[in-house]
């Protein structure tokens, strides 16, 4: 039986934080934005509708919980939630906290500026903000 493996591009661009019952929670290694990604640990799935009904419900629960926590912790002006998959076919759903003061507002963040990796201290700080609430 084939086991779930995180897509190599997600491994390269993200930091693994924790596993929810269905999804792996990643942090995009771009400190410009609080940018988190949920990846259902289901093989050969590229679209939400391909998940079983039960997994769709579980995903919605996990996404809603993450969304609420992110907006409480970061007090953003808007939360962008998107499943694009144009570059990485493995189903993954972006949760990006946006601020009217961010460099790309109100445009999308993709391709606008090079990623700015977290420093070790910044990474510790963001984990301390998020992980206890999950």
β-strand number: 5
Instruction: Give the ordered list of helices and strands.
Output: HEEEHEEH
Please state the structural category: alpha+beta
Q: Per CATH, which architecture?
A: 2-Layer Sandwich
Instruction: Bin the strand percentage.
Output: 15-25%
| Shape verdict | globular
Structural Rg: 15 Å
Helix content: 25-40%
The N- and C-terminal alpha carbons lie at a distance of: 30 Å
Q: How many domain units? A: 1
Tally of contiguous helical segments? 3
CATH topology tier name: HIT family, subunit A
Task: Write out the CATH superfamily name.
Answer: HIT-like
Write up this protein.
- This protein has 134 residues and is of the alpha+beta class.
- It has one domain (14-133): 2-Layer Sandwich (HIT family, subunit A).
- 29% of the residues lie in helices and 22% in strands.
- It is built from 3 helices and 5 strands.
- The protein has helices at 8-13, 53-74, 120-130, and strands at residues 14-19, 23-28, 35-40, 78-82, 93-98.
- The chain has a 5-stranded antiparallel beta sheet.
- The protein is globular, with a radius of gyration of 15 Å.
- The mean pLDDT is 96.
What's the SSE blueprint?
Elements: H1 8-13, E1 14-19, E2 23-28, E3 35-40, H2 53-74, E4 78-82, E5 93-98, H3 120-130
Antiparallel strand pairs: 1-2, 2-3, 3-5, 4-5
Give descriptors for this structure.
134 residues; alpha+beta; HIT family, subunit A; 5-stranded antiparallel β-sheet; 3 helices; globular
In short:
By secondary structure, the chain is α+β, with helices and mostly antiparallel strands.
